[in-house]
Amino acid sequence: MAKSKLLISVQGLSVTFFHGQRQTEAVRNISFDIQQGERLAIVGESGSGKSVTALSLMHLLPPGSHGKMTGKVTFDGDDLFSLPEERLRHLRAVKAGMIFQEPMTALNPLHKIGRQIMEALEIQGTPESERPEQAKHLLNQVGLDPEIHFRKYPFELSGGQRQRVVIAIALCGKPKLLIADEPTTALDVTTQRQILRLILKICEEQNMSLLFITHDLEVVQKVAERMLVMKDGKIVEEGPVKALFKSPKEIYTQELLNVFPQEERGKPQTIVTLKVKDLEVNYPKGRAFLPWRQTYFQALQPLSFNVKAGETLGVVGESGCGKTSLAQALLRLNPGVGKIYLGKTAFHTLKSKDLKVARSGLQMVFQDPYESLSPRMTVRDIVGEGLDVHQRLTPQDREAKICAIMKQVGLTEDMLDRYPHEFSGGQRQRIALARVLILEPKVLVLDEPTSALDRSVQVEVVDLLLRLQKTLNLGYIFISHDLRLVRHMSHRLMVLKDGACVEAGESEAIFSKPKHFYTQHLLKAAVDII
Q1: pLDDT of residue 487
Q2: Residue 79 burial class via C-beta count within 10 angstroms: exposed 0-12, middle 13-18, buried 19 and up
Q3: pLDDT tens, 297-325?
Q4: Going by fewer Cβ within 10 Å, which terminus of the chain is more open, N or C?
Q5: 134 and 180 share one domain
Q6: Residues 330, 423: one domain?
């Protein structure tokens, strides 16, 4: 359909946050329009103001923040900054829908999927008698079986299925604008392709405008028609996607498009730091009254591998293939069985206090630093907490070590008294890295450590990890959906499907000539994207 009607007009928008006596300008005097049916992408580094700009369109500020918005935002003819709260709630409920980055945190874990969709329909004003049928229709619209998924809880669904549920909720009021804030970041390449196709299909069918926020520039080329490039809260360049990718004018845009890790992986040593034999994970299916009648779901079939000092083992596969179960089993955070040797230590035999001590040598960096960092602790306490558990240092030595590791991960000492919510996603992941690196581990389990980061920060983190690996002879287990980074970092590769290893070997050999049909399918999806 023709895109002739102006849906959103933003004029001189500024957003300022206050932190005690300090203030931060998250968005600085920006202006842009969105036409009905247009697909606009906002790209930029972490902290550039992308998400704050999107939230401002709904007259929202991040939870727990103290700040103010100035300027003028017109949505479908209404001046948002002058609307009463009741009208604003109606606009958010009916005219706009939002897809969040992490669907597991956007959904209520205590309520079934059907109930959550019907709750959204209730807000829209749908009669109670029509809500179950409407909810099932929405599930069907996003490619889920209504009879199966209506009665399931969020934890029973895969990442891609949960994201489809979030899309269904966003579509309850048939909105004129769909805001997608990093909707595919946490998804594997095949699921990512399915979600993007679904979003584009819905936009075309309903002539719906799309505001797409992402750090994945390959996705932008496939999804958006026009692009805004943001840096330090300002729009530094805008225009048609094809034109900007072909000949960007601003140096920052050129750097954003051409950035790639510069550090090369080192040569592994012959010493084996981590040895795993017949590791498997079985989860109980519900609760059985009699123990011998308990049935189990095998999340990870018996798996054996080694990791040498200075070596990276890449682990890839679709959502639900067993990657995270493997990571948790290595640290004995789930009911895994098998033999795990960290150096000469039989890690699988350790109990209580001994296990706590040994874990300093085997650390994990989680996918979402916002969930893994305590919101009630300052950065100084978060980074130094491990030292309090594993080492006895004087206050002066403790402070010196904290400051040194902060500098090593690209953060400054003046950040130590701030809290996690005051940082961007990329900065929070650096804090998470500092927290584990300060213990000088032998092996790091990296569970999607760069998925929430923009490309330039990804590159910085990957280069940092490679430098540390060569300097300290660290072993890495690198779990990721980003096959481009996996190829750059990994010496060896392991491909998982349905809890089993379907292919393993030298990384370059598998990427150049995959043997298993599933690996071929996975690599093709990464190239096609949509």
Answers
A1: 93
A2: exposed
A3: 888 999 999 999 999 999 999 877 889 89
A4: N
A5: no
A6: yes
Q: Quote the tokens at residue 223.
A: 């999804």
Do 115 and 235 lie in a common domain? no
H helices present in 359-424, as ranges:
369-372, 379-390, 395-408
Query: Same domain, yes or no, for 22 and 64?
Result: yes
The reply to whether 261 falls in a domain is: no
E strand intervals along 182-308? 209-213, 226-231, 234-240, 272-284, 296-308
Classify residue 282 by its DSSP letter: E
- CA 185 to chain CA centroid, nearest Å: 5
CA atoms of 282 and 140, how far apart (whole Å)? 31
Q: Which of 329, 399, 324, 380 is nearest to 155 (CA)?
A: 324
Contact 166, 156 (CB under 8 A): no
Q: At what angle do helices 113-124 and 159-170 cross, to 10 degrees?
A: 20
This prediction's pTM: 0.78
Structural domain containing residue 87 = 6-95+175-256
Cβ atoms within 10 Å, residue 45:
24
Domain presence at residue 487? yes
Encoded tokens for 34: 């969105």
- Does 523 lie in the same domain as 414? yes
pLDDT recorded at residue 346: 95
**What per-residue confidence (pLDDT) applies to 112?**
94
SS3 for 259?
coil
Per-residue model confidence (pLDDT) at position 24: 80
**Domain end among 128, 143, 172:** 172
For residues 286-306, average pLDDT: 85
Q: Which two tokens stand for residue 227?
A: 């692009």
DSSP symbols for 237-257:
EEEEHHHHHHS--SHHHHHHH
Contact 7, 177 (CB under 8 A): yes
318 and 343 share one domain: yes
Band of pLDDT at residue 1, cut at 50, 70 and 90: very low
CATH code of the domain covering residue 91: 3.40.50.300
What are the tokens at 306?
A: 């080694």
Task: Note the Cα 144 to chain centre separation in Å.
Answer: 23
Q: How far apart are CA 477 and CA 482, in angstroms?
A: 14
Q: Residue 8's CB: how many other CB atoms inside 10 A?
A: 22
**Within-domain flag for 192:** yes
Q: What gap in Å lies between CA 159 and CA 176, rounded to an integer?
A: 26
Residue of 327, 310, 400 lying closest to 364 (CA atoms):
327
- In terms of domains, do 219 and 341 share one? no
Q: What pairs with residue 298 in β-bridges? A: 282
User: pLDDT digit string (tens) for 141-166?
Assistant: 888 899 999 999 998 887 778 888 99
> Considering 172, 191, 209, which residue would you say is the last residue of a domain?
172
Distance CA 227, CA 216 (A): 13
Nearest alpha-carbon partner for 30 in 17, 49, 45? 49
Do 74 and 114 lie in one domain? The reply is no
Closest CA to 8 of 46, 49, 54: 54
Residue 264 lies in a domain: no
**Strand 209-213 relative to strand 362-365, pairing:** unpaired
DSSP-based three-state secondary structure for 386: helix
